[in-house]
Amino acid sequence: MEKTLNELSKKYPLYIVSNGQIEYLQAIVETYNLDRFIQHTYSIQLMKSGHKSDLVKMVKNEKQIEEGYIVGDRSSDISAAKDNAFISIGVNFDFAQEDELKQADFVVNNFKDILELV
After folding, report:
1. Residue range(s) defining the domain that contains residue 9
2. What share of the chain is helix, strand, coil (3-state, %, to 5)?
3. What CATH number does residue 78 fall under?
4. What is the rounded CA–CA span in Å between residue 23 and residue 98?
């Protein structure tokens, strides 16, 4: 995963936009030293609505992003991509459920396979 993140970060700004709580996300970024690759981390706690689509829209506007990809393992990731005119890449691991990934534009079974799609 580290190699893939490194390759992606050379070509694209990477952001974590998550339903996770701020403290949890910070712990993950610190534990795995992800700040080498990730530009910024956004928690759902920033949105009163509690909707990931709204959080992605905020990041999209803040960073003036016109096109991109959302990679995730849950239906909220796929919906957030569609609601914001991004391409969705479902990753079939961790918390992924097959029925949730059916709506994704692409599905990968291995994180490194993302490199072939972008």
Report:
1. 2-117
2. 50, 20, 30
3. 3.40.50.1000
4. 29
